Structure formats: structure tokens, C-alpha cells
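Bug #77: duplicate submission created two jobs. Keeping one. Sequence:
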Amino acid sequence: MTELVSIAEQIAKKLIASKQTIAVAESSTGGLISASLLAVPGASAYFIGGGVIYTRDARRALMDIPDDAMRGIRSASEPYAQLLARQIREHLSTDWGLSETGAAGPTGNRYGDAAGHSCMAVAGPQQQVITLETGGSDRQANMRAFAKAALELLLKNLSL
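Kept job's structure:
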């Protein structure tokens, strides 16, 4: 967690300096992204909220993304990560939206993605989506790797 909080501290400085806000929609990280951002003192200045969007029911209820909006999009994909980041940003009226969706392991998901597969997206003044493949099946290690990659993606885009 120390490594994640270290990245979150850099993010916090940038968000506070620019008076910007963030909202997070995460899945296979199980709240690690939000926990890292909230571990920094003063988080209320930039962190508005978020959720662990782990199931279809959570997507419908918490993100207000109906099944119709999912036509041609599957979970754990770059288009879905983009949709989540944009929707959480809009839903909570923040400057930035950050999302993560993937398969932490120890097995893959029902869409054919192997354990260690995750897609992350940033929506805001900058837009970017990436895919990470760890090649491993260790659930906890993958969750940490996914959270680290998502935080680094946000930090990179805050620096552009």
C-alpha cells in the first residue's frame, strides 16, 4: 500500500494545486485505487467519490449505465473502461474520472481474458485508455498492479 499512497500523494499535490476533483469507478481493484487516494491527508479537497462496480447490477444502479448503452461493449475491455471513466466523471460532476476493469485471478473471466488482464481509463481534460497484462494469476498481486497502473495513468495525464 505504501507504493500506491506514494503515487497518490503526487496526484493529490497536482489536483489540489489546480483545484481539480476526481471520481473513481473500479472493479477488480476492489477499492484500492480509492483507498490510496483517500489515504492522503486533505483528500476531501479533491476526491469526490466513487464505487466498486463489480457486477452488472452495480453498473446499472450505481453508474446509471443501462444495458442498451452496453451494446457491442463487454466488461474488462478498453471501451468499457472509457465508458466507466466518462460516466463517473459526469455522474459526480468532477474534473477527472478514473476507471479500472479486469480479471484479478486466480482464473480468467467469462469473456476469455486471462487472470492479470485489466483495462484502465482517464476521462477529463486528457483522455487515455490502456490495457495491462501481468501474466500472473496471483489475485492480490494483480489487484495491486492494476491499482498502481491506474494511479500512474492518472498522474501521467495530470502532468500533460
